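Encode chain A's predicted structure.
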Amino acid sequence: MSPLLITVLIVAGIVVLGLIAFINHSLEAGKLERARQKAELTDRIRRCSNLSESMPGQFMTPPLKQLLNRLEMQLSINLNKVDRSNPQLSGRIQDLRTQIAMGEAVPIRNPAQPVQNEAQAKEVRFQLEALHAILSHAQQEALLPPQEAKQWAGEIRHMLVMLHCEFFNNQGQQNLQQGQARQARLAFERGVQYLRKQPDIKRYEQQLKQLETQLARANAMVLETAQPVADEPSELGEGLKTLDEEDTWKKKNIYD
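Encoded structure for chain A:
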């Protein structure tokens, strides 16, 4: 065997080994990319589904329900392309298509959850922030038109305002029921100040009027409880009476 042939065989062997390594690397990179896409899509689908099911009923509307259904279906279709072995995915996609076809008649099964304390208010605020993040991501991937994304951003701000209104109103009402007029006044006052800072305050005229009425009511109760009762004995009154009696006794001794 000539030296030239040996050299050619060695070079060919090196090339083949290089091609095998490149193919293996490409296959491994493809597997990793599919696994990454699968994990990301699965997580985003879970977030859409959780929001659709857990959002308090007073904030969930048919358009919002359908928006989440549309996004979940699009994400599920993308997931089906990289995870064809999932038997439940096709059924879920068909179920979402059925719900989307209902339009405004889609059933809303989310129960209303009154926001009565700060922890509940924070939980709903986190949900609204999660919704905004989902829509922003969908817009970046062209799953949601920019104009529609902008409209929903405004709707999320409106929902946040309504969340504050409900929280301050419920907190004030709860304080009134517990006989805590000063705390109630503070809650209603915070609600009024919050609404007056809104740029589109005309949209919330009804809520502002309601909070102002409750604020006036709470303020009247505070003033009423602050007035002393004339016939009710008090330590201060008894002390002044004692000092007056002692002063009269001293004057009597001096003039006698």
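Residues 115-228 form one domain.
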